[in-house]
Amino acid sequence: MRRAFVVGAVVALALSIEAPGASAGSLSCGWSIDGSLAESSVSLLSVDSISSTSVWAVGWRALGDIDRTVTVHSNGTGWTVEPSPNPNGHYDVLAGVAGTSDTDVWAVGTTGSSFPYGSLIEHWNGSAWTVVPAPDGVVGALNAVSADSPTDAWIVGEMDGTVAHWDGDRCLGGGRGHRRPKPPHGRHALGRDRLDRAPPLALGTR
Asked: Nearest 5°: phi and psi at 36?
């Protein structure tokens, strides 16, 4: 279900937001509104700032009973919707985004037409988003991604506490993933402090 992706709060885009006692376009505590897509059907679930002139946000657009992926990019002066793949065409949602440069950005989520839904992994190479097939061992919804370099990225998901690592040599080249034992707390994904101490894993490990 779509609600499975909502961790904390979903950011729903609106035409304008005004905080009490503040002028339009500004919020208290140092926050300010940085533009809007002016589309009430769009919800954004994750954001990552690569630099002051490159920020990505991802989520979904509701079109009746169909959900489509949404990726938007800010160059520091405004937000632009970048086309992103929808491999299923019925239920495609992005829940996490992380990038290391303008030519290396990952987005993860879920895709499918009925439960259980499949994993969705997409990659931005500087000019277009493409679907990266989820290898063996990665199934179900993916909720978050973290990337430190083009050869070091992590994803986590819902099925059996999925944890997977990208080493720059697997998956994009069609490599198969490997399995790891289930984490001690069942379906709860491992925290990042646990990931930093874990041995290198091929994307698709869990």
From this structure: -160, 150
State the residue range of the domain holding 111: 46-197
Q: Long-range contacts made by residues 116-122, C-beta under 8 angstroms, separation at least 24?
A: 116/140, 116/159, 117/91, 117/141, 118/88, 119/157, 120/69, 120/87, 120/92, 120/93, 120/94, 121/155, 121/171, 122/69, 122/71, 122/84, 122/85, 122/94
Give the SS3 label for residue 199. coil
174 phi and psi, to 5 degrees? 90, 15
Q: In whole angstroms, what is the distance from residue 100 CA to residue 102 CA?
A: 7
Q: Does residue 101 form part of some domain?
A: yes
Q: Residue 203: which of 105, 147, 156, 135 has the closest Cα?
A: 135
**Is 175 contained in some domain?**
yes
pLDDT digits (tens, 9 = 90+) for 102-133: 999 999 999 998 888 899 999 999 999 999 98
Q: Residue 191's CB: how many other CB atoms inside 10 A?
A: 10
pLDDT digits (tens, 9 = 90+) for 30-65: 888 887 776 779 999 999 999 999 999 999 999 998
Quote the CA–CA distance of 10 and 109 in Å, as a whole number: 15
Looking at the structure of the chain, the number of domains it has is 1
- pTM of this prediction? 0.70
Asked whether residue 16 is assigned to any structural domain, the reply reads no
pLDDT digit string (tens) for 131-184?
Answer: 998 877 788 999 999 999 999 999 999 888 888 989 887 543 333 333 333 333
